[in-house]
Design a protein that fits this description.
The protein is mostly beta strands. The termini are far apart.
Length: 180
């Protein structure tokens, strides 16, 4: 019986050594950090107001966005809230979105969700001067895709204009945002 036990211990020791050796030679996962210098001004609390909307709804709507860095600096997290703004919107809209950078494709991407079940994803090649153009890639519930141009007026003010082509025609909206 002790001979069998000795062989068992020897096998356990051999397998443990092989497992430890394999673990020690594992290739580390790269932790490539994004250069956020062009986007850092966005960190903080912003108040946005819809100033134009050709759909007939939403003008005067306000939204509060709180932007923070998340997941070890790989993403900018935006928590947003917008109180009811007309008779059709009777509940507060709450959203979360994440912005990141794809170093291989050399493009920014953002994706977000809301408490109304919405999901959307957009991409951008980045800033061109003081403008950044976001192109929708996906919207839930077969919502039409649009293009949003964000203009950096200053480190504490941005404007944005969205153009969306629908079956009813082209819809446009614009927002002004200020940092608190």
């Amino acid at each position: 019986m002790s001979h069998l036990r000795l062989i068992s211990f020897a096998l356990i020791a051999i397998f443990s050594t092989v497992t430890l050796a394999a673990a020690q030679t594992a290739t580390p996962v790269p932790d490539v950090k994004t250069d956020w210098s062009s986007m850092k001004f966005l960190i903080g609390t912003w108040t946005c107001k819809t100033v134009q909307n050709t759909m007939g709804r939403g003008t005067g709507r306000t939204e509060t966005d709180v932007n923070t860095m998340a997941l070890d600096g790989h993403y900018m997290l935006t928590n947003s809230t917008s109180k009811p703004f007309d008779k059709a919107r009777t509940a507060t809209l709450v959203g979360q979105s994440w912005t990141g950078y794809d170093g291989v494709k050399k493009q920014w991407y953002t994706f977000g969700i809301s408490n109304f079940g919405g999901f959307g994803m957009s991409i951008s090649p980045g800033w061109n001067g003081n403008k950044m153009v976001w192109t929708d890639m996906y919207n839930s519930d077969a919502q039409p895709l649009g293009v949003t141009t964000v203009t950096k007026v200053s480190n504490t003010k941005t404007t944005s204009a969205n153009v969306t082509k629908t079956a009813k025609g082209t819809e446009t909206s614009s927002d002004e945002c200020t940092k608190s």
